[in-house]
Every structure is written in C-alpha cells, then in structure tokens.
C-alpha cells in the first residue's frame, strides 16, 4: 500500500544560524498547518540551534 503524501509531506528544515545545513523530515499537515520550527543539532557549528521549515 502506498503512502499518502497529501497528509504527511516531506519538509526541509534549514538552520537559522546561516550555515546552510538542512534536515529532511515529514510533518502532519492536519496537526501542524503552520511552518514547523525545531531545535536540532547543527554539526557545522557543533551546537543546537533553531531549524525552520523552508518553502
């Protein structure tokens, strides 16, 4: 059975520190209709920074 991409699309999370590092994840569009923002590890800076959904 194939996945339904309309409910859980792939999103790219880009570092707000300006390093250009990205994570790719899925989000539930019904629960989080606005842009996703998470604190994750940036290996370029070697510290945790905020990552925001890129469109």
UniProtKB/TrEMBL annotation:
The keyword Ribosomal protein applies. GO terms for molecular function: structural constituent of ribosome. InterPro entries: Ribosomal_bL33, Ribosomal_bL33_CS, Ribosomal_bL33_sf, Ribosomal_zn-bd. The keyword Electron transport does not apply. GO terms for cellular component: cytosolic large ribosomal subunit. It holds the Pfam family Ribosomal_L33. SUPFAM superfamilies: Zn-binding ribosomal proteins. One of its GO terms (biological process) is translation. Keywords: Ribonucleoprotein, Ribosomal protein. NCBIfam families: PRK00595.1, rpmG_bact. PANTHER family: 54S RIBOSOMAL PROTEIN L39, MITOCHONDRIAL (PTHR15238), LARGE RIBOSOMAL SUBUNIT PROTEIN BL33M (PTHR15238:SF1). Belongs to the bacterial ribosomal protein bL33 family. This is Large ribosomal subunit protein bL33. It comes from Auraticoccus monumenti.
């Amino acid at each position: 059975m194939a996945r339904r991409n309309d409910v859980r699309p792939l999103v790219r999370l880009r570092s707000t520190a300006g390093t250009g590092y990205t994570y790719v994840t899925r989000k539930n569009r019904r629960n989080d209709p606005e842009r996703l923002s998470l604190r994750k590890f940036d290996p370029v800076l070697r510290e945790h920074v905020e990552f925001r959904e890129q469109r």
